[in-house]
Write a structure and sequence with these properties.
This protein is α+β, with helices and mostly antiparallel strands. Helix content is about 35%, strand content about 15%. The chain is built from 6 helices and 5 strands; from the N terminus they run E-E-H-E-E-E-H-H-H-H-H. It has a 5-stranded mixed sheet, with helices on both faces. The longest helix has 12 residues. The radius of gyration is 16 Å and the shape is elongated. The model has no long low-confidence stretch (mean pLDDT about 95). The structure holds FE2/S2 (inorganic) cluster (2 copies).
Length: about 160
């Protein structure tokens, strides 16, 4: 029988305590235990970026982190950053630049892009491309995504 452990995590500003399987990944915990399905699961081995979350201020792959490793941490998801309006400018730019099609990559892409926006510096298009290089999009060809991020960062 798999071992269960009790964890307490602050998710989008709310403290939650749950018993979780020792091997459960944090993105599965968010989706299955808390119903926060905005973080997507693609490759499940750290390549596609669909599961990107913010943990204690840094973006991480939710499929490479165990839920038990998030014990005592603050976890922010696409839902939390959308509700707080932190992503408002990026979301508007993505919409206006047509930077999404199926939308599967979009939550992770926004989380990664916001990581750059928060640095409050100018970045070249090459630097933007480099920063989102761990986030795969199978639809858009990236041009419009870079356009949207560029607009928010560089005006
Ligand atoms: S599902 Fe986590 S990186 Fe692809
Ligand atoms: S919009 Fe479909 S994968 Fe990016």
């Amino acid at each position: 029988m798999e071992q269960a452990l009790t964890i307490t995590v602050t998710v989008n500003g709310t403290q939650v305590t749950r018993s979780v399987a020792a091997r459960q990944h944090v993105v599965d915990f968010l989706r299955e235990e808390l119903g926060l399905t905005g973080s997507h699961i693609g490759c499940e081995h750290g390549v596609c970026g669909a599961c990107t979350l913010r943990v204690d201020g840094d973006i991480v792959r939710g499929c490479l982190m165990l839920a038990v490793q998030a014990h005592g941490c603050r976890v922010d998801t696409i839902e939390g950053l959308s509700d707080s309006k932190e992503l408002e400018k990026l979301q508007k730019a993505f919409y206006e630049k047509n930077a999404l099609q199926c939308g599967f990559c979009t939550p992770g892409m926004l989380m990664a892009a916001q990581d750059l926006v928060r640095m409050k510096k100018k970045f070249s298009r090459e630097e933007i491309r480099s920063h989102i290089s761990g986030n795969y999009c199978r639809c858009t060809g990236y041009q419009a995504i870079v356009d949207a991020i560029d607009e928010v960062i560089n005006g």
